[in-house]
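Regression test attached.
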Amino acid sequence: MLLKIVENIDTGEAYNFLQSPCCGALNVFIGTVRNHSKGKEVVKLVFEAYESMALKEFEKIAVLAKDKWPLEKVAIVHATGEKLPGDPVVVVGASSAHREAVFEATAFIMHELKRTVPIWKHEYYTDETVWVNAHP
Amino acid sequence: MELLLFGITKDITGANRLTVPVNEGISTVGALKRWLAQQYPALANLRSLAVAVDHEYAEDSQPLTGSNEIALIPPVSGG
């Protein structure tokens, strides 16, 4: 399993890690910074992580995914720090013999990551900043 | 007892760490949450507020000691 929190994401690293001759399917999801949110221009995002706990949560999610689907390898990598529109901020990938498992597993991993992993997104607009999801 | 703070809880408290005075007699996660709500009423406006003890989400009934690593976890927004 490739489980990391980094300053700058190397999308090729996850792809190289996931490759395996026994796998006919390799799926990599890349989440990137969008230049707008709720009708406003986004200048940048700043991500903060409680790294030691976030890595433990990554591992729990990866183990759950491997229990649910026949995966050969799993990668979960998230960036911290300042990110500009277009920059990759999260990479989630899986490899398996067949495609159904990796499509489903990567969607599951992203869903769980957004639900439980202690990482926070600070969104900077042209006129204000907001901690995403903080308020109802 | 030391608390680690992240995200919006740093803005609300104006710090990235808080020390809970020993004489407050706080011995559970629930008691800690009640003490925090009194000290920082703006925490009540958050969508949720969890406490992690030694890197695991903790229930209100969980006991706390000074040797635990305790962190406030406001609503997460990774990905």
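Expected vs. actual: identical. Residues 25 and 98 of chain A are 5 Å apart (CA to CA).
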